[in-house]
Structures are given as C-alpha cells and as structure tokens.
Amino acid sequence: MGICKFVSVILIFTLFCLPISIYSLSSTELSEIPTNFLNYAQKPELAKWMVDVRRKIHENPELGFEEFETSKLIREELDEMGIVYKHPIAVTGVIGYVGSGEPPFVALRADMDALPLQEMVEWDYKSKIPGKMHACGHDAHVAMLLGAARILQNHRQELKGTVALFFQPAEEGAGGSKKMIEAGALQNIDAIFALHVTARIRAGSVSTRPGPILAGCGMFEAVISGKGGHAAIPQHTIDPILAASNVVLSLQQLVSREADPLDSQVVTVAKFHGGGAFNVIPDSVTIGGTFRALSKESLVNLMHRIEQVIVAQAAVNRCNATVDFFEDDLYSVTYNNEVLHQHFINVAGDMLGAERVQDMKTIMGSEDFSFFSEQIPGYFFFLGMKNESLRKFETAHSPYFTINEGVLSYGAALHASLATRYLLEFEALSHLSKRNVHDEL
Ligand SMILES: [Zn+2]
Ligand SMILES: [Zn+2]
C-alpha cells in the first residue's frame, strides 16, 4: 500500500467512523454529507423533537412582529444547544451563530409569523388562539431550522466558517426581512438560503428554478368620490359605483393590451366597497387589489398605469379619485442566484436523487425573502409534503392547512447540508455568485 493510499484510507476511516470530518474532502466525500445529515435528522429522537417544537408553535400562533413567545421558545432551544445568538433583531427576530465565528458567513432563514385565520382542523394541537393560525407552515419552518441548528452544532468543529440562523418575524405582509436588513442582519453574510413547504409536490422532493422564482408585488387602494343622493333621481348625483365599475373593467386591459404577452403580469381588483342601501347612491366607493410582475421595470410601469387609469377613468364619470400604493409594502422579485442554483442541485441531488429535484415554473405569489436576495446572493426552494397515502394536504392559507410532519427531517438536513457545503466550497462559489448578484429592484 503506497503512502497516498494509506492516507486516504485513514481519511475515509475518519469520515465514516467518527463524526463527519469535512476538511479537505474529495468530491465523493462531499457528496456523502447530505445523506449523512439526513440519516442524522431522521433519527427518532431528533425527528420527534422537531415535531414537538412545531406543535408547540402551532398551538400558540402569533402575528407579524408579535412573535414574542415563539422567539422565546427559539432562544430557549438555542440556549439548550449552547448556540450564541443576537436578539432582538426587528422586534422579535433572532440570529443564532454556529461554527468558527469567523468568515465566511452563510445564512439560513425561517419565518415565524402566523395568519389572522380561524383554524378549522380538529386535532390535538389545534391553535389555542381564536382567529389566528399557522396556515402557511412557518411553524414547520422554525422547527426545521432548529433541527438544522442541532445538526450543525453537532458538527461545529468541522464547519469551515459560520452559519447564521435567521429567525425572521413578519413575513406575511409586514416586511420583517426589510426590518432585519435595516438592523444590519446581512452584514458580512455571503449568501442566504430559505425553504417553503408546499403541498403541490411529493414528500421527499424539492422544486425550484434559477432566476425569478416568485413575483414582485404591490397593492393599491383607490377612493373614487362622486356625489351621493336618491337612487331614483340619478341626475342629481354623481354615481361613484358606475365610475368604479368602469375603472375595474379598464384596469383589466393593462395586462391584456399593454403588457408583453411573454412578460407575466397580474392586475387583480380584489376589493370593492360602496353603498349600503337599495335606494341610496353613495358618496364614494373604495376599490383595492394587487399587481404582480417579474421585473422592477414592469412593476413600476404597472403602478404608474394603474394610477393613470383609475384617475382618468373616474373623471370620465365626473368623479375624483385618489390612489394609495402603500409603497413601503412593495415586494421585490424573488430571484434565485444562478451559481447557488447549481450548488442547490448538487446538494439536493446528492441527498434525494436527481429525479426528486424538480424544475418548476415561476409563481406569481410573493415572498419577502426577495429583500434578502436582492442584497446578496440568495436561494429559495420548495419542500414537498404531498403523500396521498396519509391524507390530502391543503394549500397554504387554507383554514384546513396541515403539515406533513414526516418532511421536517428533510428540511433540517437540506438546510444544514446547503450551509455546510457552501462553507466548504466557498472559494469557488462566492467568486462566481458575487459576479452573478441580481440587481433587480
Ligand atoms: Zn403565507
Ligand atoms: Zn409562507
């Protein structure tokens, strides 16, 4: 046996018989990390612990920037693991740090907030708070990131840098990620990853794509004012209901007649309030809705045209209109860095097999992860939950939404593997991905 062969046998022995040593690994050895982490995450004690954590959070759902108990539970678990953290970041946010404490830094993000929705699922761990529910899976996201924290902490000596664990408040519309960025959360962070559960694909599968994965999004609300009066004497009134109805129809022509058919966009009027009696024409009508696009240019253009159409179309019917765009709540396009996409394909492929890493189409939904990924290289993917032999899993934001708790181990292991491999392959990845930072929005 030559000296080289002897050394490699010793190295392989170290890899498989001791806690995984990940310095100076060959590509075969790197490819073993995801499966080793998955085996670790699927051990009954870790899997059960994640389920328990998730159920505790599920029972006590908290809305954006009110996640005080969730944040406390996270900090208690991090304390228990001996992981240092920063708190508070953006009111209830927590950032834990695992590894050398030195650069490079890679972040993993989980959102913590629930929705203002009454849970309709009858089970032992049903929401105890009337009108609030974890119906988007953020309770599972927190449990999976805590699971990843356990895996990483168990291998902390071998991390070639530092993993930052982002527990983020207020994803559902209040822009918690923006507040974390304002608080300096991204300082020194080289790349960031996040996942979202989905009932659309099979458990044990993931879906994703490079480039735009979720749309940029804005909201609008317009007050269309006329002159109220008796419904039987319309000539003495200026009818805002007719004006608002024409506005709704005109808005539909923005996408169908003005947008490039190959550049996906959405304008939806989802709110129409006016009048309260059969025989009274009201003074004003309020309408509101959302608009979506896959580039900053298209999003800004839609915003300008929505205002012009509302004001001008209202004027046709002698009404005045004011439009509010809640510009602080404008969401950017969620853009997946191309180099991190290749990294994800490699890591997830090693863990799940290439056939379980699926391409997906861009979705016109939005995520405030976009604010992270427009600042630094970022990557977002979906983790499947579908399993017909268990039950039908409803889509997010349904009052009947449930989690396939069997997939928590996959999420934890993917998080831990993506970060660990990123740090190991940092030289090559950071060099390429920085050149590939998206400057959208
Ligand atoms: Zn949601
Ligand atoms: Zn969500």
Automatic annotation (TrEMBL):
One of its GO terms (cellular component) is endoplasmic reticulum. Residues 219-313 form the Peptidase M20 dimerisation domain. GO terms for molecular function: IAA-Ala conjugate hydrolase activity; metal ion binding. Residues 1-19 form the signal peptide. Keywords: Hydrolase, Manganese, Metal-binding, Signal. SUPFAM superfamilies: Bacterial exopeptidase dimerisation domain (SSF55031), Zn-dependent exopeptidases (SSF53187). The Mn(2+) ion enhances activity. Pfam families: M20_dimer, Peptidase_M20. Its cofactor is Mn(2+). Mn(2+) 2 binds at residues 136, 138, 172, 196. It comes from the Eukaryota. Belongs to the peptidase M20 family. This is Peptidase M20 dimerisation domain-containing protein. It comes from Papaver atlanticum.
